[in-house]
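Lecture notes, continued. The same structure-token format from the folding unit now serves as the input rather than the output. Read the line below as a description of shape only.
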């Protein structure tokens, strides 16, 4: 908690600095968005031990416009971008029965679009999407990739910064996934806050020196 309290004022200062750089024309919103998507996809690829995966993740994230709920149609679009044929048709251990996959995704989309989420902060909402996608396991393969794309999409839809993961986050993320499976989304939300702070720092550096 003390660490988070130290981070918060620093993040506020960085946000103000970034706003100043944007106002001065030192960097554009478009450049920041492109940088963020590239940094996010590269970080997730490193986290998963597959550096060459970054372009695939970036393409998948761009396949669904921000604002769309993570329902069956969105997942089908992400699946196609990830090289998967569509929703899973065969049973598997730990996932929803295939005949209920589309229904469970529709329930998730309806929940994310409901008005009763006003009190739930954006990182916690994104953490729930991440956990539910892993729990449903909509694809035959690569549900972990899908979950990261759905998480990033949920953050973007809520106007939040994407997380910048590092290799050192692998163990905390694994623990946070286990906690999320017990409906405790706090650890994952905290990790997302930390990773978003890293992304903010890189955005400020980009604004200060676009050649960096």
């Amino acid at each position: 908690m003390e660490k988070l309290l130290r981070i918060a004022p620093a993040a506020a200062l960085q946000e103000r600095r970034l706003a100043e750089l944007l106002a001065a024309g030192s960097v554009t919103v478009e450049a920041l968005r492109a940088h963020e998507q590239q940094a996010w996809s590269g970080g997730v690829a490193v986290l998963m031990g597959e550096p060459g995966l970054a372009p695939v993740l970036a393409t998948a994230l761009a396949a669904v416009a921000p604002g769309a709920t993570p329902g069956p149609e969105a997942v089908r679009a992400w699946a196609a971008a990830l090289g998967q044929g569509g929703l899973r048709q065969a049973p598997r251990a730990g996932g929803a029965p295939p005949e209920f996959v589309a229904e469970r995704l529709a329930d998730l989309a309806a929940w994310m679009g409901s008005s009763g989420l006003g009190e739930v902060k954006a990182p916690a909402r994104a953490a729930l999407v991440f956990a539910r996608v892993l729990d449903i396991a909509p694809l035959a393969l690569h549900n972990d990739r899908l979950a990261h794309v759905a998480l990033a999409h949920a953050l973007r839809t809520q106007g939040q910064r994407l997380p910048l993961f590092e290799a050192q986050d692998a163990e905390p993320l694994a623990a946070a996934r286990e906690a999320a499976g017990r409906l405790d989304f706090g650890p994952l939300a905290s990790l997302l806050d930390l990773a978003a702070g890293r992304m903010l720092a890189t955005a400020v550096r980009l604004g200060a020196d676009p050649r960096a």
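Point for the exam: Residues 186-208 form the longest helix (23 residues).
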